[in-house]
From TrEMBL:
Binds 1 zinc ion per subunit. Residues 243-318 form the Mannose-6-phosphate isomerase cupin domain. It comes from the Bacteria. It comes from Flavobacterium aciduliphilum. GO terms for biological process: carbohydrate metabolic process. InterPro entries: Carb_Metab_Reg_Kinase/Isom, Man6P_isomerase_Firm_short, MPI_cupin_dom, PMI_typeI_cat, RmlC-like_jellyroll, RmlC_Cupin_sf. This is Phosphohexomutase.
Length: 320
C-alpha cells in the first residue's frame, strides 16, 4: 500500500450566520439553508477528517498518520509535532456577520485549554458589493476602553472596518480582534485549534430565542490592543508559487495556473492545495486526479514530484 494525493469528506457545520454558498459556489453536499463552515482537513477532537478517495477511503486522517507518520507529515513536521496534524483547513460562507472574536496565543491556549493557539489567514474567494471585515482597532486601545465601549454598546466605533474583494488576503496573529462580514466566502488556514473567545454577537438570538455565550473576561488578556497591519500584498505571476504568508506555523503561496507546471519538493512537510478558482489536473506517476473549485488536496510528504495542469487559482500550504 502506498500513499497518494488525498481528499477527505467535508465536515459541514451549520452556523447562525451561515447560508447556501458552500453548495452553490463550492459544490459541497449541504441541504441546510445555514451552512457556515466546511472543515476540509481536520484532526480536532470529534471532528477528524476521513479519506474520500482511493484505497484508503474510509480511513481517518489520524489512523493514516499513525500508520505513515514521517511519510505523510514529513520528516521535519514529525520531528516538531510527533503524530499531531498541526493545521486546520476550512471554507466559510458568511450570509450574516460573524461574531466579533479573538483567539488566544499558544501560551494562553496551552495553559487554559491544553490546545494550540489559533494563528490564521483568510483568502477572500468571493465578496458581495460592500462586504466588510473587522480587523483590529482603529487606534491604539486598552482593556479599560474596550470594556467601556462594550458596556455602552459602541464597540464597533473603535474597531477597524475594511471593504474587501476577491483575492485579498489577511493574516491574523493571535490576539487580533476580528470578524468576517456578511456576503463573503473565505478560505481559512489556521493552527489546529477550536478555541474562540466571542466578544460581541450583535445581540442576536438563535431559533430558540437564546443568545450565544460570550467570553468577555477570557478575552481581556488575550487581546492585542495595538493597531495591526493584517492585509498581505502578493505577486500573481502565472505558473509559479508566489509567496503570500510565511510564519512559524505555515507558509502559504498563491499559484495562478494557466497551462502546466512541475512541482518538486523535499520531504520535510506535507503540502496542501486549496482550489480557490477554476479547475485543474494533477499527475503523479501514471495516475491523473481531477479537481475543481472548493476541493482541498493533501499531498503526503513522501510525494516529491508531480505535475499540475489547467486554468485555476490555488493556495499552496506547507510548514517550513
Amino acid at each position: 500500500m502506498k500513499l497518494y494525493p488525498l481528499q477527505f469528506h467535508p465536515i459541514l457545520k451549520d452556523r447562525i450566520w451561515g447560508g447556501t454558498k458552500l453548495k452553490t459556489y463550492l459544490n459541497k453536499p449541504i441541504s441546510s439553508e445555514m451552512a457556515g463552515e466546511s472543515w476540509e482537513i481536520s484532526t480536532v477532537d470529534h471532528d477528524v477528517s476521513v479519506v474520500s478517495n482511493g484505497v484508503y477511503e474510509g480511513t481517518s486522517l489520524i489512523d493514516l498518520i499513525n500508520e505513515f507518520p514521517e511519510q505523510l507529515l514529513g520528516t521535519q513536521v514529525y520531528k516538531q509535532f510527533g503524530c499531531q496534524f498541526p493545521l486546520l483547513f476550512k471554507y466559510l460562507d458568511a450570509r450574516e456577520d460573524l461574531s466579533i472574536q479573538v483567539h488566544p496565543n499558544d501560551t494562553l491556549a496551552k495553559e487554559r485549554h491544553n490546545s494550540f493557539g489559533k494563528t490564521e489567514m483568510w483568502y477572500v474567494m468571493q465578496a458581495d458589493t460592500n462586504s466588510k471585515l473587522i480587523i483590529g482597532f482603529k487606534d491604539k486601545s486598552s482593556s479599560e476602553a474596550y470594556l467601556k465601549h462594550l458596556k455602552n454598546n459602541t464597540l464597533l466605533d473603535i474597531l477597524d472596518t475594511k471593504e474587501v474583494k476577491k483575492g485579498e488576503v489577511f493574516f491574523l496573529e493571535t490576539g487580533t480582534i476580528h470578524a468576517i462580514g456578511a456576503g463573503t466566502v473565505i478560505a481559512e488556514i489556521q493552527q489546529t485549534s477550536d478555541i474562540t473567545y466571542r466578544i460581541y454577537d450583535f445581540n442576536r438570538v438563535d431559533a430558540s430565542g437564546k443568545t450565544r455565550e460570550l467570553h468577555i473576561d477570557l478575552a481581556l488578556d488575550a487581546i492585542n490592543y495595538d493597531v495591526v497591519s493584517s492585509e498581505k500584498k502578493y505577486s500573481k505571476i502565472e505558473n509559479r508559487s508566489n509567496n503570500v504568508v510565511q510564519c512559524p506555523y505555515f507558509t502559504t503561496n498563491f499559484i495562478p495556473l494557466d497551462g502546466g507546471m512541475t512541482i518538486s519538493k523535499n520531504d520535510d512537510s506535507f503540502h496542501v492545495y486549496m482550489c480557490v478558482g477554476g479547475s485543474f489536473e494533477l499527475k503523479y506517476e501514471d495516475e491523473k486526479y481531477h479537481y475543481t473549485i472548493g476541493d482541498t488536496i493533501l499531498i503526503p510528504a513522501k510525494i516529491k514530484n508531480f505535475e499540475i495542469f489547467g486554468t485555476s487559482e490555488l493556495l499552496e500550504i506547507y510548514i517550513s
